[in-house]
Amino acid sequence: MKTSFIFVVIWLPLHALSQGHLQFNNFTEGLAPVTISSTPGTFNPADGLAGAYVGSDYAASLFYVLGTVTNQTVFDNSNPTWVTAVDARFFGTTGTGSGHGWDGDGSGFFDGGVARFNFALTTATFQVRVWNNGGGLYTSYEQAASGGHNVGQSNLLPLFVDAPPGPAPGLSGLMPFTVGIPEPSTFVLAALGGAALFFFRRRK
Fold first, then answer.
1. Residues 90-116: what's their mean pLDDT?
2. Is the Cβ–Cβ distance between 109 and 33 less than 8 Å?
3. pLDDT reported for residue 154
4. Burial (CB count within 10 angstroms: exposed 0-12, middle 13-18, buried 19+), residue 109
């Protein structure tokens, strides 16, 4: 009984104070590159050709919330934490063809190193958000989206966050995704509709 008590007393503080880690990259065979949408009208042509691998004019950011979340709206409303320390630019240049991608200049892939957290041995839900940096003009996904540039979000990734001394796990389950112009929100559409109605009423 005494031994069990000592184990609990020692283990709980270590669990609470342990630091978790995760590899923030898709630079692994088996994980897909990020590309520009190939559907006409869904991407900004100034940011690259349809279907192109994204290059160093794009950045990747990591966001998370604690616990398991499977719904995007719930994730967004949970005030996800942005791990700014691992923001990463993509390799290579944005483009298509054999000179790009895994066997070319590495475009479509990024490596932000090891992300570290003040929690471990628990599950958190992660998301990769990719955005065109406008040649250094934009420093966040939101700025790029507001400027009409290509942005994109990965699927939600509930992952168990391990702690050292073991190796940092990767973004297991990361699915292929593209970047493009985000659809206007219902709020924006309603505002535009209201402005148009006001304009026509004034003309009458």
1. 96
2. yes
3. 98
4. buried
**Which residues have C-beta within 8 Å of that of residue 175, sequence separation ≥ 6?**
32, 154, 155
Q: Return the bridge partners of 125, or none.
A: 65, 158
Residue-wise over 132-169: b if at least 16 C-beta within 10 A, else e?
bbeeeebebbeebbeeebbbbbbebbebebbbeeeebe
Phi, psi of 196 (to 5 degrees): -65, -40
pLDDT exceeds 50 at position 188? no
- Distance in angstroms (rounded) separating the CA atoms of residues 130 and 90: 10
| Structure-derived torsion over alpha carbons of residues 151, 157, 161, 164, reported in degrees to the nearest 10 | -60
Contact 138, 147 (CB under 8 A): yes
42-83, pLDDT tens digit by residue? 999 999 999 999 999 999 999 999 999 999 999 999 999 999
Residues 6 or more apart whose Cβ sits within 8 Å of residue 51: 35, 36, 37, 38, 96
Q: Quick check: 36 and 180 in contact, CB under 8 A? A: yes
Is 125 in contact with 153 (CB distance < 8 Å)?
no
CB atoms within 10 A of CB 96: 16
